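User: Quick sanity check before I run a bigger batch. Here is a single chain. Can you write out its predicted 3D structure?
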Amino acid sequence: MSIFGRKDNVITYTVNKAVNTNMYITVQNGEVVVNAPWYFTSNKIQQMVQEKKNWILSKMQEYEENLPNMQSVKIFGKNYDIQVRYKNIKMPELSLEQNYKIEIVLPNKYKKMGNEQILKISIDKMYEQIAKNEIESLMENARKMLGMAPEEYTVTKMKDTLGKCVNGKITINPELMQFKKEIIQYVIAHEFCHLKYKTHGKRFYEIIEKHIPEYKKYEREIQNYEF
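Assistant: Done. Predicted structure follows.
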């Protein structure tokens, strides 16, 4: 992998060498590949990239402008637009902007995946990161509110389930972060109550109603999920 930089524009490219080939450059799925004869030096290849710089950057810009975006992704009950771009990094990065936009920066290796798969991975990573940033304080709020706490808790993606409590361990689905904070707090408190009562009986809801009197309103908003 070679890198050629000029001002704010950086071109990352892969070199493929062969015995019988002409020098040519391709840009596919945002990835720049230089195909060159085996005897071409690094300086010669970089010179060719320099000559094609404007064409390469235009193709990369064209690709980035057509990256997948999803409208109305929810975080804490508010709608955000997602913009995905790629960079020479090892781990995904997330930036929440003040104008209800999200920029997700993914490692270059994700470029080879389909757009739908890229977007799904981006959204999953986003919710995981937000959950890891928020869950500790929400758990502490529930502990103070109810006077009890689980032996341990984890943040794990689950299908159609926002939270569960099994054998003293609470699991929270990071997708819970799409809802308003009061709903998130309710789901966590709900799972805390299962530490004492395994079923949704009368005493279970007496505790819920005492501390979260609007719980029925919250349950209507998440009625398509189990918890």
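The mean pLDDT is 84.

User: Great, the batch can go ahead then.
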